[in-house]
Every structure is written in C-alpha cells, then in structure tokens.
Amino acid sequence: MIILESKLRVPNYSLYLVRNRLLSFIENHLDRSLICLTSDGGYGKTTLISSFVKEKKLPAVWYQLSQQDRNPHTFLSYMKTAILRRISGEQMIYDVRPEQIDEELDHLSALLSTWPTRLIIILDQYQSVDQCEEIQHILTRLIENASPSVTFIITSRTRPSLQLVSLKLQNRLAELHTKELAFTKDEIGMFFVDLHGIALQENEIDLIYHKTEGWVTSLQLLKDLIKEVNDADRPSFWLKFNGTPDINDYLSAEILASQSEEIRDFLYKTCLLTDINSNVINKFLGIHNADEILEHLLRNHLFIYKNNLGMIKYHKLFRSFLYRELSKRHSSTEIDEFHQKLSLIYEKKSDFIHAFVHSVMGSQFINAATLMKSMKERFTRSQFLTLIDKLSENFSPDLTFASISLFLFRCIPLDMIKDLITPLEINFKSMNGNMNPKLSVHFQHQLAAIYYFVGEMNKAEQLCSNSLNESLSIKDQEMICKNLSLQAMLCMKTGRQEEAVQCAQEALSYRGTYSNYHPHHMSLCVLAEIYLDQNKLLKADSLIKETLKLSEERFDCAILFPYRLMGKYYRLQGDYQEAFAWFRKAEDIGVQFHLDYDLGNVYLEMVAAYMETGQWEEAELYLSKSSVSFTHNIYLSNKVKQMQQALSEKRGSSTSAVDMAAPTPQLEAHRPLVVQEPEHAKISIRVLGKFEIQSGDQIVTLKRKSSLRLLQFFITHRESKLTKDSIIDEIFPEGSFEAVNNQFYVTLSYLRKTLEPQLKSGRDSLFIKQSGEHYTLSLDHMDLDIHQFTQLIHKGEYSSLEHLGKLKKAELLYRGDYFEEYPYVSFLELVREKIRVYYLKVLQELAVYYWDQADYEQGISYFEKALRKEPYEESVYLEYMERLMKANLVLQAKKVSELYQKYIEKELGIPVQAKLQKMFHST
C-alpha cells in the first residue's frame, strides 16, 4: 500500500496567530479521551491544532483524512503506520489487508490501552469518513480502550457520529464549536495589527467583526486586499464591503459545489429571510420538508446557526453571497415577486412587521401602506421600534434602510414618531463613542428625519449637519446625497432659499443609483418649489415634469409631490380648475398611503387656492383638516395658525373652524400632565418586580397558565386594540383552528372571572372590553404600576421641582424589572428592556439634578444605584467619574474606575485604559 506522507505530517504554517484562550482550553482538557472541534469550513481548526502541537511541543500523531480513507483497511494502515513510527522512530510503512482488520484492531487497541506517556492523536477533516460505519466502530473501540495518557482530537465540519453522549456522561469529552472558534474582536485586532502589521482603527475592527462574525478564512482573504487600499480610500472600501471575490470563490467552491441542486435552490431563495422559519419556507417554496433541510444545513455547519433566542440565521457574509447568486439567476422583477409572496404569507400569520418589510423590499408600497394602517390600530410604540430594527437589518445589498426611511417615517403616525425619539436617542447616546462611523451617520440621519417630521427644525438641522459632516469624512456618497437632500428641505421650510438651492443642486451632482432615487427626487422637488415661490414658472415646469417622469418609473407615495407641485404651478398661473384637479390627485395618493403629514401640505395648498378664489367655507374646511394633520408637528402647526389669522382677517371675523378643530402642540404643552390613578380602582396590578394582583384586601391568583399569559399580553399591549387572531397567534401558536379557538374563549372567560368573580357576562367586564372584533384592556378601574410609571417619566412643561417629584415617584414605583419572574416570554422581552432603559435614565436624571444642586451625597447615591442596576452601562461610569473628578473626589473616582475596568474591560472585553488615563491625567 502507498502511504502519502503529507497526510501524516503536521502542517507547518509559517505565520499564524497564537490563540491563547483556545490553546489553554485544549491543554486543560487533555485529560479527556476525545476533544472535538466542529464548525463550518474555514474557522481555523487545522491551524489551531497544528499551532497547539507546535507551541506546546507535545508528542502527536497527525492523520489528515479524505474520502480515499473510507476503507477500514486504509484507515487502519495509516493509523498503525503513524502510531508505530512514534514508537520506533523509523519511517516504516505498515500495510493492513482487509482480512486482517479485526486482528490489527485488537493489536492497536491493546497497544493504546497501555500507552504510558502523553500522546495526542489528531484526525483532521474527519467529516470525510464520518458516514462510514466500519470506521465509526474502529474509532469508538480505540477511544474506549485508550489509556488516560492518550487524547484523540477530531476536527470536522460535522459533529462526529460517535458515541459522544456516553463519553460526555463519563466526563471524557470536550468540544469547541463555531461560536468558540470564531475570532473575537480582540483576536481580529491582533491578527491584522500585530501579526500582519496592518494599522486599523478601532471602528474598522468593530466593522470587520460585525461583518465577518469572526470567520477566519474571510479574515485571511481580506488581509491582502486591505494592504492594497490606502488610508484615504479605506472609508469608501468599508462602506461597500459585503465580501470579496476571493471569499465568494471560496464559498462557491467549498460550500455550494458539494450541495445538491435542491439544496442550492433552497439556499438562494431563503436568503431573503432573516429569521429562518420552516413553516414560512414550506409555504414560500411549496415544499413539506423544510425542517429536514434545515436540520441537514445545521448538522453540516453550512454557515447557518441558531442564535441565543433559538432563531435560525445565515452567516452575514454567506447571506450576502447567496443574494448575489440569487440575483444572477433571477431578475429583479422575480425577486420582487418572491418578496410579495413572503409578505402575503406573513400577513396571513398576522406578523405585520415581516409582512411590511417584505412589501417594501418587493416594491409593493401600496400594500405596505395598508399594512401600516393595520399596525397603527394594533401596535404599541415599542413595536414600531422593532419595525425600525427589522427594516435596518433586512435589506438586501443593493437597498439600504436609509433609502426608504422617508417612506417609513411618512407612514408611521406622527404621535407614534414623537414617542420613538427618546428610546432612539438613548440607544444612540449609549453607543456613542463605540459606534462605527457608518452606523453613526445612518443613526443621526434617521433621527434628523424624525425631528423634521415632528417639526423640531433646529434639532433636525443639527443632526443632519452632523450626519453630513461624518458622511463626507468617510466618503459615503449615498449618505452625503441623502443628507444634502434633507438639508435642502430643511432650508426651504425655514425660508433659506439660496441655501436650499445650493444643497439640492449638490445632492443632484451625485450619480443616480437605486438607493439615490429618493434624495434625487426630493432635491428636484425642492428646486421646483423654490422656483414656483420665485415665480420662475418655466424653470419650475421643467423640473416638475422631470419628477413626474421619475415617479412613474416606480409607483410609490413619491408621486404625491409632483402632483402637489403641478397643482401649485397651475394655481400661480390662475388656472384653478386644473390646479384643483392636480390637488385631488395628490390627495388621493395621500389617503391611499395614509400619509397625514403630506396630506397636511396638500391641504395647505388647497386652502391658498380657495382663499384666492373667495371660497371661504372650503378654505376653513381644509385649514381644519391640515390642522389635524399637523397636530404633532410644532413648526407647521404655527404655520396653520398664521393662515388661520390671515383667513380671519380676510373674512373679517375673529374665529374660524380651526379654533375648534384640534389644539396645537404649544397649547397642549401647557396643560399639566396628571398621572391617572383611578379614584375607585377595583383592582391593583403590580408588574414591576414581583407580579401581584390585589382586589381590596385579597390577593388574586391566576392558576391557569394560559390566562396569565393572556393578561401579560393585554398589559403589554394596553394601548392597542387587539384582534382575536393576533392574540391566538401569540398565546396559542400551535393546534387546529377549532382547538385554539376554544382555548381562547376558555382562557379569556377564566381570566375575566378571576379578576371579577361576580361577573355575569363577559361583555360587562370592567377590565377586558370587547368592541366588535377587538379586545382592549381598560384602565378606568385599574391601578397598574407600569402605566403610572410611563406617565410619570414623560417630560412636559413643568418646573424643575415638579419634574423632580415625578421622577422620584417613578423611581419608587420601579420595584424590579417588568414581569421579571417570566424571563423567557418573548413578547415581554422588548418592553422589559425598554422600561429598564427608562428607569436607568430616571436614576441618571436624579443623580445629575442633585449633583448640580451640590448635594453630592444624594447624587452619589443615585449614580451607585444606577450602576448596581446595570453594571455594564459605560456611559454611567464615564459621567459619574467625570463629575467625581471635577468635585475633587478622587478616591471615590478611583473606586468607580475599578468597577469600570472589571465590568467593561474584563467581562465585556472593551478597552478602557486610554479613557481612564485621559480622564485622570487631564483633571
């Protein structure tokens, strides 16, 4: 028999990263009979074990397996040759013939059973022979009988089909999987900076870690490419990075090539999903075996994994690669149709977030707007935050979240948008300093757009300016264009026409791409509107027609703008009949897409036309409509008031319909916020901390688990009208329609009767109301701590003492996390985290307030309380230490710095020394 010497030789890598955490793990587990390294391809398993042998200088037998080793006599020949060479030191070849297998196995097993000194036997690329039962039998026998001095190490892309459970129960097995083998952020830094001398910024390392998820081969292939990119071009390189040709070639040759056509087609099409769900896939692809295919993919480590929540996801680079392959095989129209099909599947499941996402991705904007209408009726504020998160992670490589953010924020109700500002700002501030520049640019642009829609122009301009400057520094042309377009709109709205023209023209100078459609469209609209205001009608006419042509290429709500501008053009020409025809078309689009903000602008144009033609009643009617549309927009509410005054003066009256329509935010702001604690509460429910229901002096117990879950769902969505279907989907996700329908009514009945023992009819319930097909939780006769807490923390126009009192009440209410005894109920998690963030903000505000009053004792008390609650919040440490140093409380600052290092640096792995040195040195 011919022995290939390369198969028995320990690979010699001239340059490799010494991964001490993994080397220590292996060294500490050499007392185990078997150590398995199982992961997707390219995670450095072979390099790790060869470096272990080299670094520790341990006696080892190396056997690199391939499909040619599937014959038992071949396998035993190599094993015998390698082991006997270790004894004799001579390069002999020992051939095992097929008829000698049992005899030779007995001999080899006996030899290993008495092995006196440390020996490591490495079987590299074991997946090549894993399906051979004879080899499974041989290896199981050798491992079972080997002496404690012998350790087998297996590297494989699949978990070996050996008796691993038995070994694990005997404490003879140790394992490393993809998660452990992936490079950490620190290891990525050492790989590029220390090993290869490539100077990377901290944010570049963050980005590489986020994009590659520590996949070792991608780092190796990326290394040479980065070397060729000069420092000035680096920002542009990272913006476009979603893999490299070499990475794609590797995935194609090493992963896809060995899969069947059925599996490849499955992978291509399911890359459109971020959360891989077998039920959805079966309906999407018209198959019945999605579970089996997913199990195959997971078992074979094909760049697919389950996250901490048990959700199946593709590796980011692999998903990007699959999308590119999908785009080669299907037209954009076909891919749109795939998204539309997915949207319909999710809509039928009442999963409106995913349905909305796929409608937008499939260019079905009307359907997306219809879904948004359903979400308005059902969703809480926190669910709209989830929607934003889903949109930001779901887009394909040629479509970014920023490219449709204006559409999204136009669709979300303005009152909801206002409530999104605080949690988004908290998220931004908590990540500021650790956020990569690209994410910072997007985040600030997103907040700027929100502030624009609620009429807080100064904040919108500041954030837009910050985002623009950062996008210029990293050469992100897409975001430069978007920020210039938004800045043009802000300048136009605030009367700075020259600046608006300059920004719009600059935005238009960036080449047109799919993702630049909206900023180009909006910049043309800004220029057209300014030319109309300057009475340059010929120039305006040309631009309006260009925007109409652009809008007709893809039908979404953007066509409303040229319709409105065309109406304004004809109004200025005095052709009111044509003007109203265009205004009506714009109004139809606004109604169809449920765009309150844009309808308000259309109505203002109609008011101007009605006033010019002396149609006072119609002018009042549409001014009233615009007032309602702009209820939550401070800037435009003022404009409505100005027009109301002008209308009153022209009519010679001091009042108008607007006065009775809807109060402006300025008037609302002066109304004191009253925490509604029911005067005649029938029941008291505590969900912050220990869950407790009390009726009078009696503790109420919900013994039925499904009824408890139902109450939790109602409390979580207390501001929403809930349909029976949406409740069933969450509380009873499995079972036949008839069974879950019956369960729903039994569960609801038990809940109502437990809360209201004297209740005769469910429809008479004080707490769970039914209106048509909708169910709501009524708080009129209920004392609910979470409701009081959220009311108290909302800031209004109060004196500092009033606000302080409310914060202190809120702090007392917070006895613990939201439903803290139920950590694994999925729909509670997001709210729990949101309320926890709010509570930390309350503690920080109280700490800062007392500190500013020079009451350091109280300030320290609240800072310490915040850190006890969340010891991993870096921003609290930094503000606390900075204030301590300024107050010359150096010893206390050093104590805090020790905790900061323990939790942030040692446990989270985030470097802090530079910040500490700067803080203590500069003070």
Descriptive labels:
6% strand, 5-stranded parallel beta sheet, 4-stranded mixed beta sheet, 923 residues, single chain, 14 strands
Specify the helix fraction band: 55-70%
Number of strands: 14
Radius of gyration: 33 Å
Uncertain regions spanning at least 5 consecutive residues: 394-399, 653-681
Strand content: 5-15%
Strand order of the largest sheet: 2-3-4-1-5
Q: Mind summarizing the main beta sheet? A: 5 strands, parallel
Shape annotation:
globular
Task: Provide the residue-averaged pLDDT.
Answer: 83
In short:
A 5-stranded parallel sheet has the order 2-3-4-1-5, with helices on both faces. The chain has a 4-stranded mixed sheet with strand order 10-9-8-14.
Describe this structure in words.
The protein has 923 residues and is of the alpha/beta class. It has 44 helices and 14 strands. The strands form four sheets. The chain has a five-stranded parallel sheet with strand order 2-3-4-1-5, sandwiched between helices. Strands 10-9-8-14 form a four-stranded mixed sheet. A three-stranded antiparallel sheet has the order 11-13-12. Strand 6 (304-306) and strand 7 (312-314) form a beta hairpin. The protein is globular, with a radius of gyration of 33 Å.
